[in-house]
UniProtKB/TrEMBL annotation:
Organism: Thalassovita aquimarina
Protein name: Phosphonate C-P lyase system protein PhnL
Residues of the ABC transporter domain: 2-226
UniProt KW keywords: ATP-binding, Lyase, Nucleotide-binding
One MF annotation (Gene Ontology) recorded for this entry: lyase activity
A Pfam family matched in the record: ABC_tran
Amino acid sequence: MIEISGVSKSFVLHNQGSAVIPVMQDAELKVAPGECVALVGASGAGKSTLMRMIYGNYLANAGRIVVGGVDVAQAEPREILALRREVLGYVSQFLRVVPRVATIDVVAEPLLQVGVDGEAAQARAEELLRRLNIPERLWSLSPTTFSGGEQQRVNIARGFAHTFPALLLDEPTASLDATNREVVLSLIEDAKARGAAIVGIFHDEAARERVCDREIDVTGFTPGMAA
Ligand SMILES: Nc1ncnc2c1ncn2[C@@H]1O[C@H](COP(=O)(O)OP(=O)(O)OP(=O)(O)O)[C@@H](O)[C@H]1O
């Protein structure tokens, strides 16, 4: 489902004499449907950079990043947008809040985008908000004024609304209380059970051990640091 081969990345610092910083060389990673792989390695080793390249936020300098048959490293912007709508989800710990949009609509939106009808989208959004313990009285309000933890849970509900075949998780359990952490872990387990291929960064070691099948140490792809 996700196949990365020969991926390299350097950053060019245009405001610092065009210094070239090589951060990744020959990255390899294969994630099968139903599998969850954790990216591990020292701070600065390149975990976030690899995630951003898979999502198409950073452009790889070389190699292939194939997700659901699309090579993100070569794809046109509109192909990447279609991929993000239908195939590849991204769940971070932060919600990008759009003012004046009700929480329930924030969560239902990814479903409407893939053609799910309004009622079914609403029902799925309600199910997720309930599961993530967002009180019903908040559903019609914009999450702009919500607490950090409430916003994080709305973001997780939104990220898991559509049954993406591939998912990127960036510290999805960070700063959650024990009850909600448990809910998120069960959402990840459900996604695996329906066949989603998952790549994640989890500083929560117990969470990683529970939901991840393998760990990939990206230090092995860091120029000058490979064992
Ligand atoms: N936009 C950028 N411009 C220049 N350098 C960058 C950029 N993004 C990342 N880097 C560099 O790439 C390297 C890898 O960073 P990255 O954030 O991917 O590491 P990480 O493994 O996710 O670290 P952490 O665990 O601390 O979040 C670092 O040396 C960082 O300074």
